[in-house]
Specification:
308 residues; mainly beta; Immunoglobulin-like; 3 domains; five-stranded mixed beta sheet; 0% helix; 48% strand
């Protein structure tokens, strides 16, 4: 059973009469990530966004509409050797392809940042990150928030992670250092934010490896707040059945959706804390389960959390 609890330290709920919520234009929460694949592989780009009403998506390649690419993610056709980008080259036809997505609803639209696709020759070592940005949201001073990143060997030879460096006040990272990944194998890098003062902080995780696209950079951001200003929703649910390898948590501002995925990488435990919430708002949550093939289950039962 999925349960939710929310809190705001030293704050009291007030009963008010509010006007109907105005339609909100889309806001992109997670931007598409530039990626490198070896020739013969396909590449997948994805975006998460929030906004009232049903969201629609349209992917573009170098500004041109891609027919049929109208989902929150887009997978390219298999790449070819002719698309390989050599060191110092500007890519096929003089340009590395860039992909963007237009997210729309009845209130407006927004275009994502461009994500590039680099194709490496077969046999080239490639290390892919599940996210290029980690946002910790609001975190109370002297407390800690944790996020996870999945690093995957997308090539066809072993990749060794030599060093993981972290920059930025209050940020740290653990795991993966010294790990050797076989083709297709993944490892989890855990990053934490432990602010010592209020205000927004930025940082960076730099992963150095034997891969041709080393180093891999992940931007970090988070906001330290006083304990009486921090709002959050704690979720917990029953552990998965045999074969379940992870979970995704989704939220929305309307009952029955639409829902937006909150976690950048699959959750490895049956709990999640959502710190990107606002006082006085009502949120609706569901979770899904994943198997080893990254196939996703249907939504769980819905729970409601009212943030005081």
């Amino acid at each position: 059973m999925l349960t939710a609890g929310c809190g705001a330290i030293a704050q009291k709920a007030k009963t008010t009469t509010e006007a109907p919520e105005a339609a909100a234009a889309p806001v992109i929460l997670t931007q598409p990530v530039s990626t490198t694949v070896t020739a013969g592989q396909a590449a997948t780009f994805s975006v998460t966004a929030s906004g009232t009403s049903t969201l629609s998506y349209q992917w573009r390649k170098n500004g041109a509409v891609i027919s049929g690419a109208t989902g929150a993610s887009y997978t390219t056709p298999s790449t070819t050797a002719a698309m390989v980008v050599s060191a110092g080259s500007s890519g096929t036809a003089g340009k590395v392809p860039e992909f963007t997505v237009l997210v729309s609803n009845e209130a407006g639209s927004v275009t994502s940042n461009p994500a590039s696709l680099t194709v490496a020759a077969a046999g080239t070592l490639v290390l892919k990150s599940s996210a290029s940005i980690l946002n910790f949201g609001q975190v109370s001073v002297a407390s800690r928030s944790t996020r996870s990143i999945t690093l995957t060997n997308a090539g066809n030879a072993n990749v060794t992670i030599y060093q993981v460096l972290v920059a930025g006040a209050g940020f740290n990272a653990s795991g993966s250092n010294g790990t050797t990944l076989a083709p297709g194998e993944s490892t989890t890098l855990t990053s934490t934010f432990d602010p010592s003062a209020t205000g927004t902080s930025t940082g960076r995780v730099t992963v150095s490896s034997s891969a041709a696209n080393s180093p891999t950079d992940i931007s970090l951001t988070g906001t330290g707040v006083t304990s009486d200003a921090a709002h959050y929703v704690d979720l917990s649910w029953a552990g998965g059945a045999a074969g379940v390898t992870g979970f995704n948590a989704y939220s929305g501002t309307s009952a029955s959706g639409p829902f937006t995925k909150r976690n950048a990488a699959p959750l490895t435990s049956s709990t999640y804390t959502d710190t990107n919430v606002q006082a006085g708002q009502t949120y609706y949550y569901v979770v899904t389960a994943l198997n080893a093939a990254n196939e996703e289950s249907k939504y769980s039962g819905e729970v409601t959390a009212i943030v005081p």
